[in-house]
Amino acid sequence: MRITAMGNWRPQPGTAVRFDPTEACRAAAAATPVHTAPVTFLAQNHVRGAAVARAAGRTHRGYLGSGTEIDGDLDTAALGTALTLFVRRHEVLRTWFECRDGEVAAHVVDPFDIEFEAHVDGELASTEDIHPYLVDRFDRETPSDSFPGFSFGAVRRPGGFAIFLACDHALSDGASQALALDEIAQIYAELIRPNGHGRPEPDPATPAAGSYFAYAAAEAEVTAEHLAGSPETRAWQDIFRRHDLQMPRFPLDLGLGPGETAQVAGVEVSLLDRGGIVAFDAVCRAAGGRFVDGIYAAIAVADRELAGADDYYGMTVFNTRAALDGYATSQGWFCNFAPVEFSLAGASTFSELIPAAHAARRRARDLAAVPVAAALAAIAAAGATPDAIITAPNLLSYIDFRWFPGSSREAFRRGALFTGVGRTANASAWINRDHDELYLGSQIPGTPFAESVARPYYERLRDIMTDIAATGDRRIQAPAAGSGRSAPPTDSALRRGA
Asked: What is the pLDDT of residue 483?
């Protein structure tokens, strides 16, 4: 499984097959009443934002997607049944949202009303034809203001086929996408297996995965507890006060003015090969930390050497399903966020920085217990301005794909994860590990200036990590002259890529 740009997933050409709800399924979905359970804060915020964008005539690109390839001739009926059973299992995929006067309500379709059927869209004669076909379908089919808020299909050829899925972010996250196609492929394999059960368990009435709306209800309860005040919310406030009540941002100036964004461009960098991973991990453990602590420490070293930073301040993503019983394979948006902060004072080498990074990560894990709504309320109570609160932070995500249940299976190993291409002012990093490689993907502003800043930064991070793996440590270098968030070029055409 690899996180990459959609255009980098290049399956073989063939016949495009689309899977849509039957007319009876669509009618049942449209007639489904409002669900009484709450909706998570992240989903509400996303649905509201999508409604505003739609009203302004902007194309919906707030989706996540995945694709993989499977050996053997496609059994179209079996794949349609596999999709039907998969959607029946996962409550959130049977959900569509409406937003009226800023209020978000969910409609959840009964599992027994779910049924999909195949339609042939025609031939995709070359690999180059597949990408625009996917973009067109995803733009049209993934908004979750009607059912389904996702798009699924296949590209069949003799001896094999590709499958793909894209979901509105309100229904999905990166881990969900990594799980989804593997689960569909497993159901499909059972359906076509000689002497198989024909319709694998579980029955649609007894979903296999944890309930998204039970999770949303629990989140609402925990949010209320933290809104009343807690040690964790006070810790959030203390951290933000130390950083001028501002969200974390990329350590170098990307050349955009306040409130300005640019079309996303992708940067991908291989950080460590298999041998480098083993060596880097050994250095981290010898210094009293874990592999992920070394990632934070290495980024802090890069921030020091390139930006003159005296401390590391970032926002990291946590997969909340990992802390819940029965949610390991659930579909939905199960994420939370927490600030990671530590000083570089007193550390002259990477190894000396590991204890501080380790303590900061453990502290962030505790702070991630605060739901997003409560965290933002705490920051506001500390004096942050509305503009500061709604500013998207520069994020760091770390995913170790080795621990996913399908990591040894072909559909998973061949898989690719991608997102819709929107706009950004950040250069957030998704660092991912599999059995062979540690690599980084970043979505940066697509301007010449941002490219000239972000790519060398991530290449320096690679050099830092490979140096540590090769030599067993690294002395932190003095910042280069003129480092830091200096003023960008005055030529706005250069900054914006005009």
From this structure: 67
* Rounded distance between C-alpha atoms, residue 64 and residue 150, angstroms: 9
Neighbouring CB atoms inside 10 A of 264's CB total 19
- What distance in Å separates the CA atoms of residue 290 and residue 372, rounded to the nearest whole number? 27
pLDDT on residue 197? 56
Give the global pTM. Answer: 0.93
Around Cβ 225, how many Cβ atoms within 10 Å? 14
Predicted confidence (pLDDT) per residue in 238-266, tens digit: 999 999 999 999 999 999 999 899 999 99
Set out the domains of the chain in order of their start, with CATH numbers: 2-208 (3.30.559.10), 231-411+419-496 (3.30.559.30)
Burial 135-167 (b: 16+ CB within 10 A, else e): bebbbebbbbbebbbbbbbbbbbeebbbbbbbb
Contact 115, 5 (CB under 8 A): no
